[in-house]
Amino acid sequence: MPRASTEQGVRVDVLRNEADGRPALYEATFRSLHAEVKGLPAVWLYDERGSRMYEQITRLPEYYLTRREDEILRARSAEIAKRTQARTLVELGAGTAKNTRLLLDALDTAGTLERFVPLDVSEQTLRASAQAIAAAYPRVFVHAIVGDFERDLDALPPPGRRLIAFLGGTIGNLYPGQRGRFLTTLATVLARDDAFLVGIDLVKDVARLEAAYNDSQGVTEVFVRNALTALNRELGATFDQRRFVYEARWDPEHEWMDIALRTRQAHTVSIRAFELDVAFEECEPLRVEISSKFRREQFELEAAQAGLRVESWWTDRAGDFAGALVLRDASTGS
Ligand SMILES: C[S@@+](CC[C@H](N)C(=O)[O-])C[C@H]1O[C@@H](n2cnc3c(N)ncnc32)[C@H](O)[C@@H]1O
Fold it and tell me: 321 CB less than 6 Å from ligand 1?
């Protein structure tokens, strides 16, 4: 059962608590560990410590994504506010909702905004950012949702002049099949006067892409390794960090950054919660995350296949990152 509470003007709905959220994550984890290339759902990266580390990543000199998106939002937020006239701003995977403030400012100035709805799996980070936004925007009602954007889009406030933002390039963390399902579900919940704003990292020079995930201070490596710490803590797993090497490299076939921990030698890891022993070979990767990079035509095609239409496409001056304003495709008639 969802749990709801209201503190200091912020309503928080918890859809994904220990009782009803974890089994699905555990099942996905079990499946990922049995895949052809062993992997982990990226959600494991974002416990409280991981969310704090991600915040540090966004400030690294090599990690251009957040700054490029910030540039686009600074240039376009007023136009987005004017076009959408949004009464509700939803943010999927909101985290600290840093770049979102540019949208909040523009919608607040336009005078249309009534409600901000950040949704994230990471409860502590979400509560903190919801409180901070409520304090900074006293006219806006903040309704935070602890949930999963792959499964909980039907729990959003009812349609009608909603702007649903999905920032930070997070869409690139979904595998193509997941992404297709996500966009298709989104098309079913999007009303005629709703809009979707998505931040998209673009295909570019490989050296720059690889540098963004292999920063000189090693912050990204610590962030990725934290997923093993979370598994050890929560599932009683026996991952030994010393037996894995961090590796983030460009996969030209899939056009994604492949972010993995590769074994130094063959060994077995036990996962008590699953009563499972996972055997790793020498040099075997455990994929922790992908970050897909996009080309405009491909994204437009995927959107169209899901029943969506890219209405506007904006990039930063360097052409590194894009913001796409997406609407339900009226020609699909539904
Ligand atoms: C790459 S970070 C982006 C954070 C923020 N939007 C930004 O641009 O800085 C991804 C965020 O999505 C959240 N997240 C990851 N998977 C999720 C899921 N399935 N459902 C809801 N939130 C998720 C993480 O907790 C994290 O806050």
Answer: no
